[in-house]
Amino acid sequence: MNAEQTLVALSDRSPQVAPDELIAGLVPPPQFQDVSFAGYRTDDAEPSQAQARNRLEEFTASAPTQGFLSKLFKKGRSGPRGVYLDGGYGVGKTHLLAAAWHANDKPATFGTFVEYTNLVGALGFARARDDLSQMKLVCVDEFELDDPGDTVLMSRLMRELTDAGVKIIATSNTLPGALGEGRFAAQDFLREIQALADQFDVYRIEGKDYRHRGLSEPADPIPAGQLEAAAERLEGTVARDDFATLLKHLSTVHPSRYGRMVDGVDAAVWEDVSTIDNESVALRFVALVDRLYDRNVKIINSGQALDEVFTEESLAGGYRKKYMRSLSRLTALSSQ
């Protein structure tokens, strides 16, 4: 190990987050600490990008209407109670969401969908709702419904927050009316899904994946015999793990804590990467990649190429968009 390197293992980290810390921790991740609307680079060939940015600037500048009068006159209010950004991966939705958080009056929260569902699990629905009702803005990134229980939970939470006058902005790569499609019997929950859709003014952002910057696949894996030397050249805090061991460890940590698990890490070294053939394991890995991307953690690996980490069946299934977003982010992190 070189003198400018601290070696750790993610598989040794099992962070615990006290319930009282959860609300305080709902802020943009390090990569988005200084973003702004002005810093969002729009593509002139895709006018939907500038339109979405302008709509969010307008929405964050508007004042929320909270309290008793909000509930009394909510049926007569004009305009949407939330904005929903739909679009493919790599079009800058998270940048815009974080920019909205920075621009809006505080208090405000910023978190992923799974962090909000974990918040309700940790605090109970009533306390989570009451705490979030004090916010002027609630930002929900990566909005997705992976099971029917979450459908009912989030539908009710969003409805009660907007009834309290809280502004909500959500991002996803699935239109609100199609949430859960291909993953569970969405038609059985159509009423709840439609209730969610009714909360939002939907903006579709078109465009190419900016993360690739001309790249179409992750960097090549490093031969096992050369991984040690490559890892030695990395600086800062380096997390080195056997890939199979890391995947097993992820099952012991709630995905909402993955961000805390990778805090302070500058680079990740994965030994003997292999294809993940279990859906639950693959989805946990997707959540880990999201948190590594939030922190701009460089990745190098031996074994299989990172674009072979998901099976063909997974890439063709109901979670295809999640896996494709993950491959996009793996390309960016491994090609730094």
From TrEMBL:
<dbReference type="GO" id="GO:0016887">
    <property type="term" value="F:ATP hydrolysis activity"/>
</dbReference>
<protein>
    <submittedName>
        <fullName>Cell division protein ZapE</fullName>
    </submittedName>
</protein>
<keyword id="KW-0067">ATP-binding</keyword>
<keyword id="KW-0132">Cell division</keyword>
<dbReference type="InterPro" id="IPR027417">
    <property type="entry name" value="P-loop_NTPase"/>
</dbReference>
<dbReference type="Pfam" id="PF03969">
    <property type="entry name" value="AFG1_ATPase"/>
</dbReference>
<dbReference type="GO" id="GO:0005737">
    <property type="term" value="C:cytoplasm"/>
</dbReference>
<dbReference type="InterPro" id="IPR005654">
    <property type="entry name" value="ATPase_AFG1-like"/>
</dbReference>
<dbReference type="GO" id="GO:0005524">
    <property type="term" value="F:ATP binding"/>
</dbReference>
<keyword id="KW-0547">Nucleotide-binding</keyword>
<keyword id="KW-0131">Cell cycle</keyword>
<dbReference type="GO" id="GO:0051301">
    <property type="term" value="P:cell division"/>
</dbReference>
